[in-house]
Amino acid sequence: MQIIKIYPRGFGSNCYALTTDNQAAVVIDPSQPHVIDELKKHGLTAKYVLLTHCHFDHVGGVAALQTSGARVLCSAAEKPLVGTRADLFELFGAPRTAYTIDETLSDGETRTLCGMNITTLLTAGHTAGSVCYLVEDECGAKHLFTGDTLFSDSIGRTDFPTGDYATLAESLRRLKNLKGDYPIHAGHNDDTTLEQERKYNPFLADL
After folding, report:
1. What is d(CA 82, CA 99) in angstroms, rounded to the nearest whole number?
2. Are 120 and 145 in contact (CB under 8 A)?
3. Which CATH architecture has domain 2-200?
4. Are strands 131-136 and 116-122 parallel, antiparallel or unpaired?
5. Strand pairing report for 183-186 and 192-193
């Protein structure tokens, strides 16, 4: 599996394009429209878009990819927030580009997309339907994509609509208690590992 990290231009989230054949891609949180141009540079076509949550800084490129043929998926708990004030477009004065959710994902569900086994972990707290994706490649290696649930040495905010700190703490405990160690690819800032966060992230220390 190849992981291509696409950085935002200005304010936005990290986007990740995953591919096993250098042709078809699963794209996690396409934050801005230029994501589609970056995919073309790598010869990739987005087949699926997975959203960790629907905040404006994670979904700005969804409409372009959906128009190009990609199917858009998010958690069942997050779908009702799409297109509402809970997505923060109005709060931050960002131009809204409409998209729709083609399919929803349930907690613990595993789907095989573009040759990768992708398990959805409901990790509510940043939003009511925030999820992380545990991705297993064709060789059995696993990577964790955490959106705005868990960052390097930090965690996501809980003061936006549907956010809740107590709920987020339970989600963080769930991640902390996963067996083994995984590379973590977060929505913002640098990559890290689960073991690194277990040891040094102050928000996980007492969980």
Report:
1. 9
2. no
3. 4-Layer Sandwich (3.60)
4. antiparallel
5. antiparallel
